[in-house]
Design brief:
Helix content: 25-40%
Shape: globular
Mean pLDDT: 91
Structural class: alpha/beta
Number of helices: 8
Radius of gyration: 18 Å
Strand content: 25-35%
Low-confidence stretches: none
Order of helices and strands: EEEHEEHEHHHEHEHEEH
Strand order of the largest sheet: 6-7-8-3-9-10
Number of strands: 10
């Protein structure tokens, strides 16, 4: 299996008035192409920092991050921007849609900002794949939370990325909409070979993944293949109790 994203001895520290704060302490992990990984841990464990470093949103203090074999540390700011634009998609809890734009216009936005032509029918095809063919002309305020997140997923996919990073993508949704979004992500991994790396606090969401990666105090403490919700809940309870 090819590796889509690799972290090698990654450390991340933030400077504060009280001194440096260690967010990641020598994390090494490999995420295979066409796999779905849930990154989990107690609050402050470093899971969001791991996601941001792996996606090139935040530079590492030490170590290396590779996306598709390309080391991020050796890239100029322009080259890093191009890599993120062409090979990485992002999905966030808050959707981050532009309220004044329609669903179609929100999905088109990454290409337009990059100065790239939008192919006729391409955006509508992606929206249709998300089950939103009849909602393309609606603005976010006219859509349910689950529909807004599916627009956000379509926006992440329109550039045909190799890997999608999802930060609590179901955190703002009810249980039914959450299941719909998770089934959609699972299908994209299984049917389209997409690589998904998802931060979540929800054991049920993690059960949709191929593997769960558990962090505590900026370190990987455990992993689980084909995790069940019960197993994930038990592992998280142990980490939160300091076990």
């Amino acid at each position: 299996m090819k590796t889509a994203v690799e972290l090698i001895g990654v450390r991340k520290e933030y400077r504060t008035a009280a001194g440096p704060v260690r967010a990641l302490a020598g994390v090494s992990a490999a995420f295979g192409t066409g796999t779905f990984t849930a990154v989990m841990g107690p609050s402050g464990s470093g899971k969001s920092t791991l996601l941001h470093c792996a996606a090139g949103l935040d530079p590492v203090t030490a170590g290396d991050v590779r996306v598709g074999g390309t080391a991020l540390a050796g890239l100029s700011a322009r080259a890093l921007t191009i890599l993120r634009r062409d090979r990485i998609g992002f999905i966030f809890q808050a959707f981050n849609l532009i309220p004044s734009l329609t669903a179609r216009q929100n999905v088109e936005l990454p290409r337009r900002l990059a100065g790239r032509p939008v192919q006729a029918g391409e955006v509508d095809s992606v929206l249709a794949a998300m089950g939103l063919a009849d909602r393309a002309g609606h603005r976010p305020g006219e859509l349910s939370g689950g529909q807004q997140q599916r627009v956000a997923i379509a926006r992440a996919l329109v550039t045909r990325p190799a890997v999608v990073f999802a930060d609590e993508p179901t955190g703002a949704l009810d249980s039914a909409a959450s299941r719909d979004v998770l089934r959609l992500l699972r299908g994209l991994v299984d049917d389209a070979g997409l690589t998904v790396i998802m931060v979540t606090h929800d054991p049920v969401a993690a059960a949709f993944a191929d593997q769960a990666l558990f962090l505590a105090d900026g370190q990987i403490r455990d992993t689980a293949d084909r995790p069940s919700a019960d197993l994930v809940a038990s592992r998280l309870a142990g980490l939160e109790a300091g076990r």
